[in-house]
Amino acid sequence: MNAGKRVLVVEDEFLVAEMIVDIVERTGAAVVGPAANIREALDLIGAGEVDAAVLDWNLAGEPGERVAEALAEADVPFVISTGYGAVTGAFADRPLLSKPYPGAMLVDLLRDLLAD
């Protein structure tokens, strides 16, 4: 379904990151990362070749806003994943996955984000 597409995974919890990686790979997309912190995420975005992203909003206690800004600036669509409810501010209109979420929800959102 997403063959040839590259999805950046930004998640600081190892087991959650591995779950997301598995879901992304099952859709046929390639995984970029995963990035466990803001610096790693920004480096991967800066390197380019990212078609979409799954962004954990809380990265080791820091909000993912800087990563969201870099993704938006690079015109990379992304979904925000959070266990803390809603996201406010400039990115409140982005697709949101509330943890824990079923893998099928992520698959559906990735399909929409990667649609040409």
Brief synopsis:
With 116 residues, the protein is an alpha/beta fold. The protein has helices at residues 14-26, 38-46, 65-73, 103-114; strands at residues 6-10, 30-35, 52-56, 58-59, 62-63, 78-82, 96-98.
Features of the shown structure:
Rossmann fold; five-stranded parallel sheet; alpha/beta; 116 residues; two-stranded antiparallel sheet
Q: Would you mind describing this structure in some detail?
A:
With 116 residues, the protein is of the alpha/beta class. The chain is built from four helices and seven strands. It has one domain (6-114): Response regulator (Rossmann fold). Helices cover 37% and strands 24% of the residues. A five-stranded parallel β-sheet has the order 2-1-3-6-7, sandwiched between helices. The termini are close together. The mean pLDDT is 93.
Q: Based on the structure given, which CATH architecture is correct?
A: 3-Layer(aba) Sandwich
The order of strands across the largest sheet is 2-1-3-6-7
Termini Cα gap: 12 Å
- Unreliable stretches: none
Cα-atom radius of gyration: 12 Å
Work out the helicity level.
25-40%
Order of helices and strands: EHEHEEEHEEH
Number of domains: 1
Q: Structural class, please?
A: alpha/beta
| Number of discrete helical segments | 4
How are the SSEs ordered, and which strands pair?
Elements: E1 6-10, H1 14-26, E2 30-35, H2 38-46, E3 52-56, E4 58-59, E5 62-63, H3 65-73, E6 78-82, E7 96-98, H4 103-114
Parallel strand pairs: 1-2, 1-3, 3-6, 6-7
Antiparallel strand pairs: 4-5
